[in-house]
Amino acid sequence: MKNKVISADDAIALISDNDVVTTTGFVQSCIPEALHAALEKRFVETGAPRDITLIMTAGAGDSKGLGTGRLHHDGLLRRVIAANFGRMPKVAQAAQENKILGYNLPQGVISQLYRACAAGQPGLFSKVGLQTYIDPRLGGGKVNEVTTDDIVKLVEVEGEEWLFYKSTPINVAFIRGTSSDPSGNISMERECLLLDNLAQAMAARNNGGIVIAQVERIVEHGSIRPKDVKVPGILVDCVVVADPIEMHRMNYGVVYNPAFAGEIRVPMENMAKMPLDERKIIARRAAFELPPNGVINLGVGAPDGVASVANEEKVTPYITMTTEAGAIGGVLAGGSSFGSAANAHSVIDQNQMFDFYDGGGLDMTCLGMAECDEHGNVNTSRFGGRLNGCGGFINISQNARAVVFAGTFTAGGLDIAIEDGKLKIVKEGRARKFVKNVEQITFSGSFAQSRTQPVIYVTERCVFQLTPDGLELIEVAPGIDIERDILAHMDFKPIITKPVPMNARLFIDEPMGLLEDLLNVKLSERVSYDTERNILFLNLEGWSVRKKADVEDLKKVLVNAATKAGKRVNSVVNHDGCRIADDLYDDYAEMIEYMVEHHYATTSRYTTSAFMRLKMQEALNKRGLKPHIFERAEEAHAHLEKAS
């Protein structure tokens, strides 16, 4: 039986000029550092191999020169196909200077393309990327002028637009595991993620290429249980033991954490509490959008604070958090450990997670934003002279049922203070985020609107909502002046009707009672009944319909109140400051239809939001109901008196 264990130098010597090399790793985790270092060393010393193509999904580096950042040397790379360039800034610079060819494709697409390559398929059909910079009509994912070949095509299948992503045959795959036997059977017991190692290995093997696995240790033949083998030895050509062991850290900030590997479970009560700053305000407000019993994804930066807030507020058991890297459940990690989770329920392959996401499995996502424009488009991929890349952003934002974009209102030096429950801008950020037109469309507002996808934009000082006419300002923090602190720092004027105050609890450093809100525990307190006038008044100011369960909870409260009245009631509903998710208006109208059939004598409602009045009219008219929705409370009450 062949012993496949060799040195890193001997393994790297097998790579030829012009080879297509794929490597594993997610942000700062699970990176085969010894292999990257050996490839860099060989090129610096010998000038070979030259002109290789690098294919990777998420960034795999520390943004300072480690990981794939080692491969920046002139002549080593000819072409890069990646979801993220920000983790290898010198490679990104080479692409921006037209020194190499480059494509920035969605992380999930690249991940799934490994399987297409393994199966000998010509490519992948997907709707991911339509109406973004990936769409051939908007650039086709090319990052510079010298990149001219089209690897993304717009096609029509049965009357619908799709994108076809072309497969690129792979010659060499760098993968990583924990243990290997001499035959190359790989296990991953001390890894925090599985990623695409199996698919990458199969893609290289079936193309006649080679697979090089970096591991922490060698074990005896037969000592790895069959079901614990994540990459079978038939796919592996070379096994390299990381030396020194620092080359096999769990991530750049953590040598090893058994909680992220699933070896132990840690008490959640011991997790550090976030300080009350702008990041926590944003995370707290975003947390009010969490769907109980739902599946969510959190992005890097401000959004990953939502996991900490959810834990502080005892909400974690009621939601399932996931990462695109494959972690399901538990508490998502931030910082250098982003992508992994403590106390995870399970960890699956990255490409399988993207299958779940692309198919509509996410109930909500919270993602960052570098730029946002008046059309609701968001840019996270290329801004301020930086080629960052989209990562998994396009897959996730395009396919989640509801989207929350979260980030500070301005960037670069923002300083805030919270005094007596009010927000004060001590120093404004140097860079504007709300611009007339984003530099690059990573998320399309119009595409979201065409699919009635609910989208809001959360900052420390205000909240916007995506409408058919663009962004609408719907919430303002206490202490914030709209003209001075918001409009003066935007390149466009949003729709402004009657924004409500952001929840005062966001600005007080004590538990918010978030769980009660998410479970609608106090929803019945919004209902009052005037026996003498037989009027059931429902005050929904500041309440949100985020999910179907909210509609069901409201229906139960109304049925209970009407039943107690003992007769059909006249109903007045205050929708001012209330928000109904775009895709739930029909469910809400169905609830009204039920109440009209069984409990209402007459009903009217009011809101100053023209957008809500329009959506409500459409939904009720569709069911043959008269909307009776007015702009002012006086009009709603007058209608009720006239009708009764």
From the structure above, extract its key features.
41 strands; 24% helix; alpha/beta; seven-stranded parallel beta sheet; 644 residues; Glutaconate Coenzyme A-transferase
Short description:
This protein is of the alpha/beta class and 644 residues long. It is built from 16 helices and 41 strands.
Write a structural description:
The chain has 644 residues and is an alpha/beta fold. It has 3 domains: 8-122 and 169-243, Glutaconate Coenzyme A-transferase, CATH 3.40.1080; 269-507, Glutaconate Coenzyme A-transferase, CATH 3.40.1080; 520-643, Transcription Regulator spoIIAA, CATH 3.30.750. 24% of the residues lie in helices and 25% in strands. The protein is built from 16 helices and 41 strands. The strands form 12 sheets. It has an 8-stranded mixed β-sheet. Strand 6 and strand 7 (160-166) form a beta hairpin. The protein is elongated. The termini are far apart. The model has no long low-confidence stretch (mean pLDDT 95).
Q: Termini distance?
A: 90 Å
As for the number of domains, it is 3
Q: Overall 3D geometry?
A: elongated
What is the subunit arrangement here?
single chain
